[in-house]
Design a protein that fits this description.
heterodimer, A: alpha+beta, TATA-Binding Protein, 26 strands, about 30% helix, B: about 350 residues, mainly alpha, about 70% helix, globular
Amino acid sequence: MAQGKIQQPKLGFVGYARFFWRQLTSMRTALFLLLLLAVGAIPGSLVPQVSSDPNGVIAYRRNNPDTAAILDFFQVFNTFTSVWFSAIYLLLFISLIGCVLPRTKHHFDALRARPPKTPARLSRLDGFTTRTTEADTTSTLEAAHRVLRSQRYRTEFYGDSISAERGYLRETGNLVFHSALVGVLVAVGIGGGFGYTGQRVVVEGYAFSNSLASFDSFNPGRFFTDQALDPFAVALDSFEPVYEQSNRQAIGQPVDYTANVTTTLRGEDPQSEQIKVNAPLSVAGTNIYLLGNGYAPVLTVRDADDKVVSSQPTACLPFDSNLGSTCIIKIPDGLDQQLGMLGFLYPTTGTLESGALVSVYPDLISPTLTLEVYQGDLGLDNGQGTNAYALNTDELEQIAGRDSEAQTVKLTPGDRVDLPNNLGSVELASIPRFASLEVHHDPSQVPVLLFSILVLIGLVTSLFVPRRRMWVSARTDDTGTTTIEYAALARGDDPNLEAAVADFADRHSQQLKVRVDS
Amino acid sequence: MTETFASYSLIAVYSAMAIYTIAFVLFAVDLARRSAESGDAAEASATGLTAASTRIASVVSSSVGGSTAGSTATLTTDSVAGSGSAAPHGGSPKYLRLAVAMTVIAWVLHVGAVVLRGVAASRVPWANMFEFTLTATALIIGVFLVVQFWQDLRFLGAFIIGFALIALGVGTSNFYVDVVPLPPALQSAWLVIHVFVASLSTGFFALAAGLSIVQLMQSRRETGKALKLRFLDTLPATDRLETLAYRLAVVGFVMWTFTLMAGAIWAERAWGRYWGWDTKEVWTFIIWTIYAGYIHARATRGWRGSRSAWLAIVGLAAIVFNFTVVNLFFKGLHSYSGL
């Protein structure tokens, strides 16, 4: 016996597979993975994510190139789709399935099985209580049976005792909860793949169609095909913001945004509709959301011969809450030189003590557009994509602005100013608004919602339905007095077990009393 | 009008804080008294446990008595399981009663402050950090008070009132903002539901964490490590504390699950997607996972007891972190602090 070495059984491939499966599906591993998932999600909140904050990622890369390289290696900018995060949750879900499947079988068997035999000594169990009655054993047990059935117990007679069990719903709920979680994951994984998201900035008076070419940016799901785009067009008729005017603490704060649009489905009459922030518009199963807004001044550029070279709106990006905005205007063709303009729009113009302009209210009350004008090479002709909202001044020379002889161009609506070097002129024709719309089609939504509801129902039943066994045993002695014993066993957390036994005993007594009285 | 109501609301909350402070001191005095009297009370073991079983015993005996009267059959209660010798507890001590009374008075003022703030703003009073703090603390103390009808958890008074007082102090001095209208993104019925349930669940999690802290202290004592806090003698034993903490945390967890789902539904309406790993969403998920872990820990060998208690405490810490640090310093869509 006392050998120095411990003999371990040899495990073949199947043996090891079984061993790892056991390990993976054990509660300890599941708990470890669950907590690891929580810890693993933290970096995703500390570092900007490509999915939720792409500009933040760009800024982070610019400011911390060295750290960004390390973070890139660990895919932290895409934490929630990273290999390691996916590994954690996939292992967790495999572990969960490995746990739920055998339990489902076990529960299915339990649902058809008879309640277990009455234990010999009930006095050792929870809530043990006894009563005496003059009724005989049979009628005592019959009465107990009736009460148990009325409390929805499943019952079984064993000699002079009844074994009863209730609360199978608790385990059912638990299994529904876990299965529905798998359902959510599958629905997100598959359904999300057929969806798409497209963003589009639309200026008042303009329209766009729901097609790939017309979006400013587009994120297709894994299984997306062009046919998934429902054929419709949306025109922005007007955009109406409402700003607070009476509350002195909140002057200028937005109170309401309404985009009035006309939608046209192929082959149908145009419809007038509204889109609000919490009220997206549904067109043919696709939702259109209002995500942002701002101004898109129309700058008319003429050449030296007064011929209009360009006259179109340019959406300006707001940089403060009063919609002070940055406008980048590029005129690649039509003039002697390529022209780039860096503009600042102040919808309601105020002046700081330093003399700098500032917007003091977001509505269009006294707008000013300032322009720093550059000439040279815009860098558009080399075939590389450029950011429409940024001006690369490397190959450009400032001809009007702080760093040049000519002053910054200042325009109010209707103003027309000649450009230096006899290039032509610019005129601020009008300042329409733009709305930034998102078209989102996500077939996973409905299944995810349904599974989520199942998750909640399953959770509540698995936590609050008590599962308990109850036993009633009766014995009549020589004098004709019947002693009844009651006891119960909790299966899972059951705060009211003892009270339930006492309550049952009382009801039973009540029944017996009625019997004996009659 | 708005400003008048808002200032009344502030007066009410300052008054509430003053009275809470008195209640806090009284709860602390009660703990000190427990230390002094722990010798006598040692046999009475767990106050909560004894009180609960006394109640069962009395219910049982009274109903049995009622049914026996006027009947020929004799039905007698031989024993009430597990009640043991229900040690008579000479009513609750006066400091404790006074502390609870003060808490109730302060809470009424506190709720008044919440209502006045809502009237001032003509909307639900939980749309910025100050208002969240005001309402959430009222809910936490409300849960604390209501739970007393279920279990005597007054020994947590110093913890809960202290927690709420710090939150209110920071809220009124650092987070205060004037009443402003709701931005379009918050104009939704989900603001009422989502935020309210989230705040309410915090009340349950706070109590669970308080019980878990006591549980850890108690567990150190029970394992023989000298902890010179004699009042622990008068508090329930670790397993009892663990069970109570679990039952409260479970209620909180269901609400938190609902919060998460309601938030997702709202996010779909307002932002065009139901889940986008926004910083606040990430932390809501983390908290959900921690408490899911907590619930599973109780069914895992080696995790029952102190380890699962730590999870309940970490969970509350994550909630406080989510509310303060994430709101104030993390960039995200939930930037409604108003600061």
